[in-house]
Amino acid sequence: MKHLLYFLFYFAATSLSAQTNTLVILGKTNVNTFKCTNTGFNHVVDLDSKSAQSFSLAVDDFDCRNRMMTADFRKTLHADTHPKMSVKFIKLRKINTSNYYAAQIEVRLMNRAKLYDVTFFSDDRVLQGSKTVKFSDFGITPPKRMGGTIQVKDTLDLSFSLLAKS
Fold first, then answer.
1. Residue 75 phi/psi, 5° resolution?
2. Which phi and psi angles does 55 have, rounded to 5°?
3. Which residue has the higher pLDDT, 145 or 105?
4. Which residues contact 150 (CB under 8 A, 6 or more apart)?
């Protein structure tokens, strides 16, 4: 009985913690890499919906696990004047009978929108996908620090993990 209770507790804890929306932005500098994560938004993607679906994220909810880097990231994205980032699923269709979906998404940041084609995988509860984007897609100059000694690369990897329903 003790083992059963432990198993149920472990399963419930891991299931609940794994079921959150996450947008991770991975970037590189000429010295290091960085990872900024946002889990502060609610949205469930309806895999059967034929209409556009969108959600917004607060730029201030991104956390880079380093106070100075987080502040620099938010400053680069102009969180004070553009506090929201949005993602809109323009098209979402299942690829054959697999668990893969082809999507066209619009990412809107700092009043600029860019369309991307993304392939997502779904296990019927979580929709996962990634896309490489650029700061310059949104008119952002990648930041430099320490007099240009540290330069952030223009390329970023967005990684989505979104709650889904069918």
1. -65, -40
2. -150, 155
3. 105
4. 29, 30, 31, 144
Tell how strand 44-46 and strand 150-165 pair up. parallel
* Residue showing tokens 């100059």: 141
CA dihedral 40, 42, 48, 51 (to 10 degrees): -100
How far, in Å, CA of 63 to CA of 60, rounded? 8
Calculate the average pLDDT of the chain.
87
Q: What's the rounded Cα separation, in Å, for the pair 33 and 44?
A: 30
Task: Decide if pLDDT at 18 tops 70.
Answer: no
Fold of 21-165: Lipocalin (2.40.128)
Cβ(138)–Cβ(112) under 8 Å? yes
User: For residue 138, what are the β-bridge partners?
Assistant: none
The residue among 42, 62, 68 whose CA lies nearest residue 53 is 42
